[in-house]
């Protein structure tokens, strides 16, 4: 069964136009002008149960709007939307029993009361029975090591501690889908890693489907088997992470450290006839860029046969760079490339 | 019915948490109680000062006006406890907490109300009962066995008038991005309802009876117990008006939520 099935989903907002100056403000008082802004433009995708899917894109690309539609907070302008077998905005109260939501920048917990009190309140709200609640809570508290935090009021927690509590709060009622909107924003590397491990664990053990938006591509690399990339309200990429790298990664770079000084002409001469590009870092080091379709070892063997080498490093283009490249080149070009 | 039961059990839980929170901020609690009481005392003193100048307002004596005020405090206290929506627009719309409300399996208005319960306001209701009893004795009113029951029905009806009106007002922030001065305006009009409506001119009387029925949170239901202040019919309209205003309030709220979910932020 599909956990999320989205078909030609669109969301338009009416945005007020504020006219300039005092006169404009007076005019606005009597007659407001509106412009239609389309935040999400007819997107379609399916996510099967048990998948961890990353949802990325620049600020304002439409990620949050999509998540809000998927969680039933917003009503789509048009298109079909089925999450867990429900149309989210139609049977809201029944539907939200099956989902968990964490918005990184907003708290689910009550500020002034102990963490455990918040959990108890949520138990009542979601009507989880006491035994299930106990079992679930123990398990989550154990994995995230929250024992000492349980009796502290939320306002006295650090961001990392709060975030871990938020995750528990979102999972107490055993949702089958978890929506995370920037769950690792502002966290240090240790907490980030902990949270990633935790998400992987619940996905593995409970088969929880996870959809997360993030700006930290390391989240994606650590967690997601699949990435959906959004730009200006449209999906510009939907597929595996490896594929993304392959399609967009333009090649590899190898850095050589030589024992004797070299010149750019000399090194270029060694690989004559090959479609590679040399750059000289200093007298003893040079880098060669090798396109993806070429074999690295061919180049290596030529260089190794021509000079004494003290060190070799191979750089793979990392996801950050790839994504930056895609954002920069803009969606039009990217779209064609993906379709091709 | 199951919804009611669920709301009740949630209510217990929220009150429990409220008490726990307030135990950490004890000073805060007492400051609130005392300022509430001082506010009521000021209003009473105002009535006494007025009657220092004149023996009667219309055909209302001092004790009668105090009686009406005492009655008013009962529904007002209940309303303030459960329907503390003054900061709704800022907290839920501007700061976006409505998103969180909508991802939880309980009614949106129920959740907002429960998150803002304010039990100290109930002390005002108790004081109101005290004032009513004092005025009752001073006026030497007859006492019937059914009076307490009628009082409960009237107080509930009046509370619903307030809850309905202020729910509708809170829901306005779903429609207008910058909440205007409408709440303070209504709050001022509401204060007229505490005094005998017969002392006003016809326009205001009409306004307070049929448009913003604040007279049903004061003079009309209170007249039931007073001798010689006419229409028991008007008094019996209180629960009816309460039900109608509440229904309207809920309707405005619902369309507001729909609108919010269309617009988002």
* CATH homologous superfamily assignment of the largest domain in chain A: P-loop containing nucleotide triphosphate hydrolases
Helix amount of chain A, in percent?
A: 25-40%
- Rounded radius of gyration of chain B (Å): 19 Å
β-strand number of chain A: 13
pLDDT below 50 for ≥5 consecutive residues: which ranges of chain B?
A: none
Task: Report what the structure shows.
The complex is a heterodimer of chains A (340) and B (265). With 340 residues, chain A is an alpha/beta fold. Chain A folds into two domains: 2-246, 3-Layer(aba) Sandwich (Rossmann fold); 251-316, Alpha-L RNA-binding motif (Alpha-Beta Plaits), CATH 3.30.70.1560. Chain A is 39% helix and 29% strand. Chain A contains 13 helices and 13 strands. The model of chain A has no long low-confidence stretch (mean pLDDT 84). Chain B has one domain (2-263). The model of chain B has no long low-confidence stretch (mean pLDDT 85). Chain A binds chain B through residues 13-14, 16, 65, 68, 71-75, 89, 92-94, 96-97, 99, 101, 103, 106, 108, 110, 112-114, 117, 120-121, 124-127, 153, and chain B through 6, 9-10, 13-14, 17, 20-21, 24-25, 96-97, 99-100, 102-107, 111, 177, 258, 261-264. Chain A: Pfam families: ABC_tran. Chain A: Keywords: ATP-binding, Nucleotide-binding, Transport. Chain A: This is ABC transporter ATP-binding protein.
């Amino acid at each position: 069964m599909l956990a999320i099935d989205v078909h030609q989903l669109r969301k338009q907002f009416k945005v007020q136009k504020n006219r300039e100056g005092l006169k404009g403000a007076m005019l606005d008082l009597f007659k407001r002008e509106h412009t239609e802004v389309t935040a999400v433009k007819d997107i379609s995708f399916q996510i099967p149960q048990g998948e961890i899917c990353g949802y990325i894109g620049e600020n304002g690309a439409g990620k949050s709007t999509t998540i809000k539609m998927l969680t039933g907070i917003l009503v789509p302008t048009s298109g079909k939307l089925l999450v867990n077998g429900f149309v989210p905005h139609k049977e809201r109260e029944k539907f939200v029993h099956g989902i968990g939501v964490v918005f990184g920048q907003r708290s689910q917990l009550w500020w002034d009361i102990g963490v455990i009190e918040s959990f108890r309140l949520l138990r009542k709200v979601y009507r989880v029975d006491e035994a299930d609640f106990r079992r679930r809570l123990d398990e989550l508290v154990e994995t995230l090591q929250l024992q000492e935090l349980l009796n502290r009021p939320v306002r006295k927690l650090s961001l990392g501690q709060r975030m871990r509590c938020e995750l528990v709060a979102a999972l107490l009622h055993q949702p089958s889908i978890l929506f995370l909107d920037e769950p690792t924003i502002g966290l240090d590397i240790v907490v980030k890693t902990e949270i990633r491990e935790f998400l992987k664990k619940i996905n593995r053990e409970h088969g929880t489907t996870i959809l997360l938006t993030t700006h930290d591509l390391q989240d994606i690399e650590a967690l997601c088997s699949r990435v959906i990339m959004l730009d200006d309200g449209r999906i510009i990429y939907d597929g595996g992470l490896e594929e993304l790298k392959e399609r967009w990664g333009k090649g590899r770079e190898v850095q050589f450290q030589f024992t004797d000084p070299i010149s750019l002409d000399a090194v270029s001469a060694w690989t004559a006839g090959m479609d590679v590009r040399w750059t000289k870092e200093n007298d003893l080091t040079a880098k060669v860029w090798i396109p993806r379709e070429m074999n690295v070892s061919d180049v290596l063997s030529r260089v190794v046969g021509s000079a004494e080498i003290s060190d070799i490093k191979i750089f793979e283009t990392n996801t950050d760079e790839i994504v930056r490249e895609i954002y920069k080149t803009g969606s039009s070009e990217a779209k064609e490339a993906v379709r091709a | 019915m199951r919804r009611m039961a669920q709301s009740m059990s949630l209510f217990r839980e929220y009150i429990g948490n409220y008490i726990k929170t307030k135990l950490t901020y004890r000073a805060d609690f007492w400051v609130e109680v005392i300022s509430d009481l001082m506010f009521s005392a000021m209003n009473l003193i105002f009535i006494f000062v007025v009657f220092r100048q004149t023996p009667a307002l219309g055909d209302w004596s001092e004790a009668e006006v105090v009686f009406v005020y005492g009655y008013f405090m009962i529904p007002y206290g209940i309303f303030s406890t459960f329907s503390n929506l003054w900061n709704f627009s800022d907290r839920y719309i501007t700061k976006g907490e409505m998103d969180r409300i909508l991802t939880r399996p309980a009614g949106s208005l129920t959740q907002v109300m429960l998150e803002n319960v304010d039990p100290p306001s109930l002390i005002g209701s108790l004081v109101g009962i005290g004032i009513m009893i004092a005025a009752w004795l001073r006026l030497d009113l007859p006492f019937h066995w059914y009076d307490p029951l009628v009082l409960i029905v009237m107080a509930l009806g009046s509370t619903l008038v307030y809850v309905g009106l202020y729910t509708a007002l809170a829901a306005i922030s779903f429609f207008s991005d910058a909440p205007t001065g409408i709440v303070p305006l209504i709050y001022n009009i509401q204060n007229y309802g505490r005094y005998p409506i017969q002392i006003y001119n016809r326009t205001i009387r009409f306004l307070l009876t049929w448009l913003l029925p604040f007279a049903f949170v004061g003079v009309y239901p209170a007249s039931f117990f007073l001798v010689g202040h006419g229409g028991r019919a008007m008094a019996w309209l209180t629960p009816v008006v309460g039900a109608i205003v509440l229904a309207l309030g809920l309707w405005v709220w619902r369309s507001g939520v729909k609108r919010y979910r269309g617009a988002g932020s």
